[in-house]
Amino acid sequence: MKIATTLTILIFVCSSRxxxxxxxxxxxxxxxxxxxxxGWVMITLMSAVLVAGLLALxxxxxxxxxxxxxxxxxx
Length: 75
Hints:
The protein is mainly alpha-helical. The protein is 81% helix and 0% strand.
């Protein structure tokens, strides 16, 4: 569990730094004509962090559920 928590924190820190780098290179709105790319990048990164966090929390429960199902099938 400690490894999963550490991994989640590491992913969050990396994604926030990547977001900062991406947003730092964005010109003012008056010079942009490609749409809201940084917004989509941030949404994608936040979604990835959310999935990683949920996976870190749900992995033990899903593993136990799978093992119980396999033991019932094997009987």
